[in-house]
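Standup notes
- DV: blocked on the single-chain target, sequence here:
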Amino acid sequence: MESSSLDLNLLRTFLAVYRSGSFTGAGQLLGLSQPTVTTQMRTLERQVGRELFERLPRGVAPTAVAEELAARVAAPLDQLATVAGPHPAPGGRAEPVHLAGPAEVLCARVLPALAPLVAEGVRLRVATGLTDPLLDELRAGRHDLVIATRRPHGRTLSAAPLADEEFVLVAAPVWAERLKEPLAVEGPAALHRVPLITYAEDLPIARRYWRHVFGRRLSCPAALTVPDLRGVLAAVVAGAGFTVLPRYLCHDQLAAGTLVPLHDPDDPPINTAFLVQRPGTPDNPDVPRVRDHLLRAARSW
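- DV (later): unblocked, structure below
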């Protein structure tokens, strides 16, 4: 397969499909209609003589031929895009940067860090959600940058470590006082009599804490679920029960004594957040500006 003899526009479209995982997502990235993308890929498949993408109920999956072609053309096309330079919006004003991530991280850390850029004229459009759906939307071209709670799989996205978050087991002082002796005698089993507050029914943060720190399975159900860790924090401060939270989110409450750590492990659970984007040079010059600013700001978190 001689990629040098293939049409450059077809290769650009191919790379957009490969990275977004769908013809519709590629069209959004390139400003093309979905039928146009489909036609171009059929043309490229005829030129290559092999199928490039397996059609799925949702999107497409690259074949081995597509993987080989992407490995050969991605770097040259990205370099060509760099030489061509970004294309500002009409009137010389950059388009908004579409940023997404967990609501708590965005509100507590990211938006304050980006305030100086907004004051300088950078425009932001912020969305919140869970990592897996947001990464799918990133592949489809709906976001420019996503803050993810895990490193994405595959080569369609590039990820840089942003910050580590340490998890702490906490309750209000009224519960901490009641639990001091039972915890010393029974260990974590004493907490099974206390309402557990969490952000999801499957208790992902608390289960991980139990497994990592106590080496056992957490078996108590949630008493209250709130799909926002700030709501969990507010409920626990008010005395609803206990929870596990990222330390950055409850730092002020711990310092003020309105929350008390129930355990102080030598090796607390730590999760790394990643700043994720599609590979290549974005058309909007404010995207790398926001990305680089966030990576610098995160060093002090």
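- Follow-up: The CA atoms of residues 176 and 262 lie 7 Å apart.
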